[in-house]
Amino acid sequence: MIKELMASDFHSILEVINDAAQAYKGVIPEDRWKEPYMSIEELTREIEEGVRFYGWTENGTLLGVMGIQSVKDVTLIRHSYVLTNHQMRGIGGKLISHLRSLCETSELLVGTWEDATWATGFYELHGFRLVPSDEKNKLLQEYWSIPDRQIDTSMVLRLRR
Fold this sequence. Notes:
This protein has 6 helices and 7 strands. By secondary structure, it is α+β, with helices and mostly antiparallel strands. Strands 1-2-3-4-5-7-6 form a 7-stranded mixed beta sheet, with helices on both faces.
């Protein structure tokens, strides 16, 4: 079941993100990895900046999360994670389909680590296309608030509706 997540779900959101993000350890640049991957302060800031989280729950347990954020004239898909032991069950696909239905702009963007090939494959499977490298830096600077080092090691995928 998909539901919009509330303040009472905060710690469960953090748990899902930090569990699933373990897949990045040893894959993304060492200087971008930290534990926990997302801190309480970072998640608080993301929510304060307008990221709305939705989650997939089963038997009262949050198994997957995905955020959506309107920025200027686009919609961003943010923080897509499914608990490690529940991946490959279609949860991410159901979440992204739901968020696509909520999108009110003509363009959706998602950023991910360039070495996270499984993430790129997931988004491409759901209709997103890789943005050329000469355009991705511009998009990351315009629509995200991330450090230059993360821009250098990330990619952007786009879905036009």
